[in-house]
Design goal:
8-stranded mixed β-sheet, two-stranded parallel ribbon, disordered C terminus, 316 residues, Rossmann fold, alpha/beta, globular
């Protein structure tokens, strides 16, 4: 694969995109899509951060079609409200980038629905969001869902006996589980889309190790990981570089449903988009199907009503 950059993004004129997360990778992804002509919604929980992101994108690209919408992935009610607002505004969506996330809060915390915070935000919130936006995506033009995983997924395991880690909370293994769940979700969504005729490509990506605020947000700047990020900054690639696998998955004709893309060099920690190593546990379709089933139960069955034989939403 050649050294693909944002300059290689095909025109996105006429395409509509939603990107979760207002800073770091989400910001760079939204900026690049807007520069390529897409109409972009930046979705996040903090209106001030969202307004700042929109202002920065317009300053960098004055013709950008960009706006902010509030979305708290740690609240299923917020996810449902966001999806309902979008359905009122438009009848189709072409790109959904499931990007936002949190990493390694030092103590066990819960979402508003009682889920462990990392699993609930990184995975379950995006599972619910994708399901609620699926009718719009099915009306899109060659629609794609890009879900961000992480090289940390290689160390992940799905612990069905205590999936919310109430009895064994350890920040990093729980983060790894959430990112493995994201990867397995991307693959299972692709299998279901193909089997059901939904016409929506599901693709996974990861950013390698990038300079974003994610490493600071939960552990703090004075934590070991925060100090590593500050003192060894040169080991972390810029956020714009880290966003390239996501942008490749979202726009490149070569990116295919069921694919997984990350940086090409240094153990996939940095570089240009290339096919990524898939952890063996992410290939387990039996576990993926079980994870999907319990995720549906936890999130209120957001994919309900989709006829798997035709891909047509059934009447209520």
């Amino acid at each position: 694969m050649t050294r693909w950059t944002s300059d290689d993004i095909p025109t996105q004129q006429g395409r509509r995109a939603v990107v979760t997360g207002t800073g770091g990778l989400g910001f760079e992804t939204a900026l690049a899509l807007a520069r390529a002509g897409a109409e972009v919604i930046v979705a996040g929980r903090n209106p001030a951060s969202g307004a700042e992101a929109v202002d920065r994108i317009i300053a960098a690209s004055p013709t950008a079609k960009i706006k902010f919408e509030r979305l708290d992935l740690a609240s299923l009610a917020s996810v449902a409200d966001f999806a309902a607002r979008l359905a009122d505004q438009r009848n189709s969506l072409d790109i959904l980038v499931n990007n936002a996330g949190i990493m390694r809060p030092p103590t066990w915390q819960a979402t508003t629905d009682g889920f462990e915070l990392q699993l609930g935000t990184n995975y379950l919130g995006h599972h619910a969001l994708t399901g609620r936006l699926l009718p719009l995506l099915m009306n899109g033009e060659e629609a794609r869902v890009v879900t961000l995983s992480s090289i940390a997924a290689r160390q992940g395991q799905i612990h069905f006996d205590d999936i919310h880690a109430k009895g064994r909370y350890d920040p990093m293994p729980v983060y790894c589980q959430s990112k493995l769940a994201c990867l397995m979700f991307a693959f299972e969504l692709e299998r279901l889309s193909v089997a059901s005729g939904w016409g929506v490509a599901s693709i996974a990506a990861h950013p390698g190790i990038s300079r974003t605020e994610l490493l600071f947000n939960a552990p703090g700047r004075r934590s070991v990981i925060g100090m590593t990020r500050s003192l060894l900054w040169f080991l972390f690639q810029p956020a714009a570089q880290g966003a390239l696998p996501t942008l490749f998955a979202a726009t490149a004709p070569e990116a295919k449903g069921g694919g997984y893309y990350g940086p090409h060099a240094w153990g996939e920690t940095r570089g240009y988009p290339a096919p990524s190593l898939i952890p063996p546990q992410a290939r387990d379709e039996r576990v993926a199907a079980r994870l999907w089933e319990i995720s549906e139960d936890m999130t209120g069955h957001p994919f309900a009503g989709m006829e798997r034989s035709t891909g047509v939403q059934s009447a209520p």
